[in-house]
Specification:
- The chain is of the alpha/beta class.
- The chain has a single domain, classed as TIM Barrel (Alpha-Beta Barrel).
- Helix content is about 35%, strand content about 15%.
- An eight-stranded parallel barrel has the order 1-2-4-5-6-7-8-9, surrounded by five helices.
- Strand 7, helix 10 and strand 8 form a beta-alpha-beta unit.
- The radius of gyration is 19 Å and the shape is globular.
């Protein structure tokens, strides 16, 4: 009986390790992302004329020599725009969703009462022009097809260094199948502790990377507050996966996390070496 239980336990552990296993063969392009701190939605202040995910915020990041993390989703007419929330409430004070509006409609609004409009992904690529590396988060509500096609059409002619990341493993799987050479990262956190709305079972699978066997991400982007989580620790220590910390909000947090992560996405301060 004990032998059978031991074998069963061993099989379960093996299946678990196989399920969360990321891509083991390191993409040589990953090294080009080293040496940068990554400005979360650009160098921004939502109380000034330099709000998050604006061209002005990206311009300041480029001038400071920082990489940029930015968010992309699509409008009703399938235009990839740089915007974080799925609705306009917080950023524009309007009770409408991005996916319900055409891009021409979005031009009516300004970000956080500033002069800045919601930029397209193409606008952002034109401004950055390869001067600094980009971490592009795909905001995919459920099905990835339309978002991934629209984004990939813009990025296919971009000559600068970039990678994509997403909470949605279906989006990463889409890229793995069609553009396997593009670096992709799995975003995750402790969704329950963050009090996110949704299925606890789904959140459990996402937190522990149970979709890695399919998506095979090149890196893991994890909320630094939960860096001691088991599956993250295994990916980091056993599989030697590149780990990206989000979102670091002080020099103290940066210093405390340097032994756990390789790259850092920061906000509300300027990092020091």
């Amino acid at each position: 009986m004990l032998l059978e239980l031991g074998i069963l336990l061993g099989v379960i552990v093996l299946l678990y390790l196989l399920a969360i296993m990321p891509k083991l063969r390191k993409n040589p392009m990953l090294e080009r992302f080293d040496g940068y701190y990554y400005a979360h939605r650009g160098i921004h202040d939502n109380k000034t004329n330099t709000p998050e995910n604006s061209l002005k915020a990206f311009e300041l990041a480029v001038k400071g020599g920082y990489g940029i993390e930015l968010d992309v989703q699509i409008t009703k007419d399938l235009v990839p725009v740089v915007f974080h929330d799925f609705d306009l409430n917080r950023a524009c004070g309007v009770n409408k969703k991005v996916a319900e509006l055409e891009y021409k409609d979005l031009l009516e609004y300004r970000l956080f009462d500033s002069l800045e409009k919601i930029p397209t992904l193409y606008d952002a690529m034109e401004l950055v022009a390869g001067k600094v590396p980009l971490i592009i988060e795909l905001k995919i509500p459920l099905k990835p097809h339309d978002t991934c096609i629209a984004v990939s059409e813009v990025l296919k002619n971009y000559k600068g260094l970039y990678c994509i990341e997403s909470f949605n493993p279906l989006g990463l799987g889409w890229y793995k199948k069609r553009y396997p050479w593009i670096i992709r990262g799995q975003l995750s956190t402790d969704f329950i502790k963050e009090k996110k709305e949704g299925s606890r079972v789904h959140f459990f699978f996402l937190k522990h990377f149970f979709f890695n066997f399919h998506t095979k991400p090149d890196f893991i982007a994890y909320q630094h507050k939960y860096k001691k989580a088991l599956s993250f620790t295994i990916c980091r220590r056993l599989y030697k996966t590149m780990a990206v910390a989000w979102t670091i909000k002080s020099q103290r947090e940066l210093d405390e996390n340097k032994d756990y992560f390789d790259l850092f996405i920061f906000e509300n301060f300027l990092p020091k070496e």
